[in-house]
């Protein structure tokens, strides 16, 4: 039997699945979750490791070769190493990455690598202890910095740091983050604030276009060059300071969307396929896990609904109607 490939109606070939293993998190970052009142899915609604592995096995036959485990915070899920090991033994899977806030990563980095984890992305929006504590509502930045050091020691590289830029909050740290790339295999990616689950006035007041990063390089009189050899699946435009070991990248989903090259699907912790991060469309796979043909057909149905682009730029302009209904789910409920 010829297994169909995951190619959408615009000819985009999908090789990358982002899997959220939990909607829970040990932090409450100001742009991701409210400080209190967040309702989490009960444990019996969350996909088991066996169910996730079953989904990966089927989609690997359809061309998925790259997996990213996300949350919430994926390391609040017990024995995540077990899931990494299960996925790493599935034929066709070539790359398994993890997106984490880094708080719990250090003590588990070696076991995760041994299980088959390829690399990590660490969310880090400030290097300053007080500011980091404010943004995360209680986090300890030193634990994250220690985790970065541990990952470098055990070889979980390249390490990518995801920095969500917010106007008037952390934009004065751009030079500090880029400086991290000078001597170590660290790749900083500055990310525009996306209106996922909300497009209110607070989001608009914090939104910052990434042209600011290049302006800072000019102010610092830094020479930098474009590079295209940074390992990973991401849509970043990557640059390197002359003579630096690492790199920095710009991911601007709002001002310069990269939908035309999108090769990713998402599986939420409660078992929904999301073809596009921005819109409400989703497909519940749990009911068909165990029936490989039905699961294949659901993925094909989902990818058939994927729109050409997400239209988030319209939220900046205000008052413009979108062609689809924006999602009401927060990023932590979808998978970062």
Automatic annotation (TrEMBL):
Pfam families documented for this protein: Mob_synth_C, Radical_SAM
Entry's cofactor comment: Binds 2 [4Fe-4S] clusters. Binds 1 [4Fe-4S] cluster coordinated with 3 cysteines and an exchangeable S-adenosyl-L-methionine and 1 [4Fe-4S] cluster coordinated with 3 cysteines and the GTP-derived substrate.
Cofactor: [4Fe-4S] cluster
Positions bound to GTP: 18, 68, 99, 160, 264-266
UniProt key word Oxidoreductase: no
Pathway the protein acts in: Cofactor biosynthesis; molybdopterin biosynthesis
Matching InterPro entries: Aldolase_TIM (IPR013785), Elp3/MiaA/NifB-like_rSAM (IPR006638), MoaA (IPR013483), MoaA-like (IPR040064), MoaA_NifB_PqqE_Fe-S-bd_CS (IPR000385), MoaA_twitch (IPR010505), MoCo_biosynth_MoaA/MoaC (IPR050105), rSAM (IPR007197)
Residues where [4Fe-4S] cluster 2 binds: 259, 262, 276
Residue positions binding S-adenosyl-L-methionine: 31, 72, 123, 194
Assigned EC number: 4.1.99.22
GO molecular function annotation: GTP 3',8'-cyclase activity
Family: Belongs to the radical SAM superfamily. MoaA family.
NCBIfam families found in the cross-reference section: moaA (TIGR02666), PRK00164.2-1 (NF001199)
Subunit structure, as described in the record: Monomer and homodimer.
Name of protein: GTP 3',8-cyclase
Organism: Paenibacillus polygoni
